[in-house]
Design brief:
Length: 322
């Protein structure tokens, strides 16, 4: 028969087991979160698929934003008036001056059309190969920057300077008949014409430049990293595709991207380890160390069940019985 004392003694054990199980669940949950937030070795097939899918969604959403022509032109007039008010409305003069040098403006048209993608993809490949431990954090900056830019396109439609009514701006792609901006010439119906704020040419180029400057070891590469976004700013203004204030919007989006990455990884990319150990499925090392086995926590009830019963006390041996 089970006495009341036996029942009372057994009760704390079940409560302890329950607390242990709850604690183990919380530990597993925190462990999984830490695993997700820890830098890991990128997988090539996953990254190609992710980048392709992300850019497709970005283009789809960007072009799905209604082309609010009237509002975009009003906003362009407002931006232009604001720049006049602060004494920095230099885009029109600069656009006309550079347009007079044919070889220079044609080169800028091709720069605007190609390097925006080529350099960004090149930096991603360089990170993947040389800095795999910093790749995911840097990629998150780029993705968050691009995502928040979509909000700007929706909330603040803006016509580029070359589409302003009654302005003296020159659409350099149309004038020189060069293959250039997706928003000019034969490609103008494939892209939203009024998504100039913020400038992702500046957002992406500045991401590339800062990444190379922070991680490259060669001095010439670090200098090129700083020159690239500077040259991009010159190009977007000279080709009348953006106001300089659009560049400020691109910088603000990039700051948001850095904040998101820092909040998730707890550090800036250049402070993370350069290389991490490749992992297999479920985050386990692909080549685990041998000779050690991880301790598996068991509940107190299971431990009591697995432990042998207490040995019976030895009986005293009467003298002379041996």
């Amino acid at each position: 028969m089970t006495t009341l004392e036996d029942r009372t003694a057994a009760t704390p054990s079940s409560v302890t087991d329950e607390q242990t199980a709850t604690g183990s669940t919380r530990t597993v949950g925190h462990g999984r979160l830490r695993s997700l937030r820890s830098p890991r070795h990128p997988r090539l097939w996953f990254e190609i698929l992710l980048i392709a899918l992300s850019y497709w969604l970005y283009s789809l959403v960007r072009n799905a934003v209604p082309e609010q022509k009237a509002a975009a032109l009003r906003n362009a007039d407002w931006i232009w008036s604001l720049e006049h008010a602060v004494g920095l409305a230099f885009e029109e003069t600069f656009n006309q001056a550079v347009n007079s040098v044919t070889w220079l403006i044609v080169s800028m048209n091709y720069y605007y059309a190609t390097l925006h993608f080529v350099v960004t993809i090149g930096v991603l490949i360089w990170l993947f190969r040389r800095h795999p431990g910093r790749y995911a954090a840097s990629r998150l900056i780029l993705f968050a920057t691009t995502a928040v830019a979509l909000l700007g396109y929706y909330l603040f439609p803006l016509a580029p300077p070359r589409l302003m009514n009654g302005g003296g701006f020159i659409d350099t792609v149309m004038v020189h008949q060069t293959w250039g901006s997706m928003a000019s010439g034969n490609f103008k119906h494939m892209s939203n014409q009024y998504a100039a704020m913020p400038s992702m040419h500046i957002g992406w180029s500045l991401w590339c430049g800062l990444t190379v400057f922070a991680l490259a070891s060669a001095p010439w590469a670090r200098i090129l990293g700083l020159l690239y976004p500077t040259a991009t700013l010159v190009v977007i203004v000279a080709t009348a595709n953006h106001f300089w204030l659009d560049a400020v919007g691109g910088m603000a989006c990039l700051m948001f991207g850095y904040a998101v990455s820092y909040a998730w990884y707890g550090s800036l990319p250049h402070r993370l380890p350069k290389r991490v150990r490749p992992t297999g499925g479920r985050g386990r090392p692909r080549f685990p160390f041998r000779g050690r086995r991880a301790a598996v926590p068991v509940s107190s009830a299971a431990a009591r069940a697995a432990s042998p019963a207490d040995p019976a006390p030895a009986r005293p041996v009467p003298p002379g019985s041996a």
